[in-house]
Design goal:
Elements: H1 5-15, H2 22-33, H3 37-53, E1 55-56, E2 63-64, H4 70-73, E3 78-85, H5 88-97, E4 102-106, H6 124-133, E5 138-141, H7 147-160, E6 166-169, H8 185-193, E7 196-197
Helix pairs in contact: 1-2, 5-8
Length: 198
Amino acid sequence: MEQIESLQRLAEQFGRLQGVGKKSAMRMAFATLSLDADAAEEFASAIIEAKQKIHECPICANLTDRELCFVCEDETRDRSLICVVEDVKAVMSIEKVREFRGVYHVLGGTISPINGITPDKIRIPELVVRVGEENVREVIVATNPTPDGEVTAMYIARALKPLGVKVTRLAYGVPVGSDLEYADEVTLGRALEGRQDV
């Protein structure tokens, strides 16, 4: 069967998205083709608008389409309590729990010597500066309970020790080897409550 070049190109673009395999990419391409012209235009426009407007918050690196993210903008949040997470998806998961009233610091990954990711390649230096400049009483390290997440948590604890700030780790209501984004609200809530010193 002859290839339809524009369909292949569309599927290839979907395939460039993280976690999307060839079959899923082709299904998404067919689903896009089933949209009427107005819906397809709206879909394309939403992608372009998101790319143009969404950027990292200059304080915590959460995503926003305003000057600051919704957390940093909120005057009622406790700025003396910082929750350190790997990515924006973890912020969204913790926010669903509605129990955490502090602020965040998004690392943008974890230390991974095998993959050449050293502490300076994620936002650990910015965290140290932030804790040193602001009146922070506690840093909750909420990296995923994976080997790289554990290494990152230990590194952060050592880096912050000279600043005299309390560093805690989420309790293990979150199963080892899993990602925070897949944890339910009750499990995450208990993990936040039962956090321990690092």
